[in-house]
Design brief:
mainly beta, twelve-stranded mixed β-sheet
């Protein structure tokens, strides 16, 4: 999903010039609104490659892998690819055996940069290893991704008391969340959550909480 002003015109790359070539064919914002999606055997909504794409006011529940998943967002600039003003329910009262055996995520973020999650509410992630957030979509093994960390920007998130695990990181367990408003980390604006690495336990700016965060949270001095 990569809408542009001239959809059929190729972009000419010049390796001798460092400028971004996308000015030749500007991005167009694609807004999707008001999807309600539940009881899918995989995802409530999923995107492979996305540029300036916004999911707005989505509602998902009872999905076996994730409510929403974005795989690749490296064809746009930071902050353009977003999930906004949405509701993610891990398990409703209308549960079933396959869901009881699963450990889904609310939102699985990409294995690339440029992704933002804004004003999303999470409920009922309180069984098995279910978690509101997960990182590195489709990073199932070493051949599927590089070994670099990827940063997701979050703000204005709401976690009900029924969310007992806010993050569960995925392979290669190097994800980073930049929390602009402090609702994820509860450490104030411009703070951080990141996957567990033993040497990061030494930093006074960070705390380790494997149950809730599956790793570290750090204040804004980091």
């Amino acid at each position: 999903m990569n809408p542009r002003e001239f959809p059929c015109e190729p972009i000419v790359y010049d390796p001798l010039t460092p400028e971004d070539p996308f000015w030749q064919n500007p991005l167009i914002t694609a807004n999707f609104y008001n999807l309600t999606s539940w009881k899918n055997k995989r995802n409530g909504a999923i995107v492979g490659t996305a540029s300036d794409l916004r999911f707005n006011n989505f509602k998902t529940a009872d999905n076996l892998l994730a409510g929403i998943e974005f795989e690749l967002t490296d064809v746009s600039a930071d902050g353009l690819c977003q999930v906004n003003d949405s509701l993610i329910i891990g398990k409703s009262a209308n549960s079933e055996q396959t869901l009881e055996m699963a450990s889904p995520h609310g939102i699985i973020s990409p294995r690339t940069e440029n992704f933002t999650i804004d004003s999303v509410r999470f409920y009922n992630f309180d069984w098995n290893s279910a978690a509101a957030l997960g990182d590195c979509s489709h990073c199932y093994h070493g051949a599927a991704t590089d070994s670099g960390a990827r940063t997701v920007t979050v703000k204005n998130l709401t976690f009900d008391e029924t969310v007992t695990k806010r993050i569960r990181y995925q392979y290669p367990f190097l994800g980073i969340y930049k929390d602009l408003t402090g609702d994820l980390t509860e450490k104030g604006p411009n703070t951080w959550a990141m996957a567990y690495l033993k040497h990061n336990e030494a930093w006074s700016e960070c705390e380790t909480n494997m149950d809730l965060y599956d790793g570290h949270t750090c204040d804004n001095s980091t």
